[in-house]
Amino acid sequence: MKMRFVAATVALSVVALSIAGCFQPTVVNSIACIEADPTIGYAPLTVTFDASCSVVGLQSPPPEADYYFLWWFDDGSLGGEVGTVVEHTFVEPGTYQVRTALYETAGGGIPEDQATRTITVLPTE
Fold first, then answer.
1. pLDDT (tens digit per residue) in 48-89
2. Other CB atoms within 10 Å distance of the CB of residue 39
3. Cβ burial, residue 22 (10 Å; 0-12/13-18/19+)
4. What is the mean pLDDT of the chain?
5. Of 25, 42, 66, 86, which sits 20 to 30 A from 73 (CA to CA)?
6. What is the DSSP track for 45-111?
7. What's the CA gap between 30 and 60, in Å, rounded?
8. What is the pLDDT of residue 115?
9. What's 21's DSSP letter?
10. Pairwise CA distance, residues 53 & 9, whole Å
11. Measured between alpha carbons, how far is 123 from 125 in angstroms, rounded to an integer?
């Protein structure tokens, strides 16, 4: 019985503080993420990268009219591809740190967040 009373008191306190504006849950503004398929394979390896798992405020994926993604593939290519979903072919064996940065269209060139994904390309059998 005492445990229920303590739990109810804590719950009511959180509600009261929330209503009073004294307690506000933390809201993360932007989180970039990368899904990749496949993440390992034989050269030449074509990989599809998808950043639609990223979140801005409570929106996932971020609205394309307001946000965009730039990509770098760590393989000596020029990089700088733009898009939520992109495809890239790795020709040489190696381990690559693929990076995307989430930008706000009107944000002045400063990324909101970045994400990295490791891709492993094995020598051809």
1. 999 999 999 888 888 888 999 999 999 998 778 899 999 999
2. 14
3. exposed
4. 82
5. 66
6. EEEEEE-TT-EETTBSSPPTTTEEEEEE-SSSS---EE-SEEEEEE-S-EEEEEEEEEEETTSTT--
7. 10
8. 98
9. T
10. 38
11. 6
Residue tagged 């490791």 (tokens): 118
Tokens read off for 72:
């770098």
Mean of the pLDDT values across residues 106-112?
Answer: 85
Q: Looking at per-residue confidence, does 18 or 45 come out higher? A: 45
Sheet holding 45-50, edge to edge: 35-37, 45-50, 85-90
Residue 51: CB atoms within 10 A of its CB come to: 24
Fold of the 27-122 domain: Immunoglobulin-like (2.60.40)
Q: Which amino acid is at 9?
A: T
What's the CA gap between 19 and 52, in Å, rounded?
Answer: 34
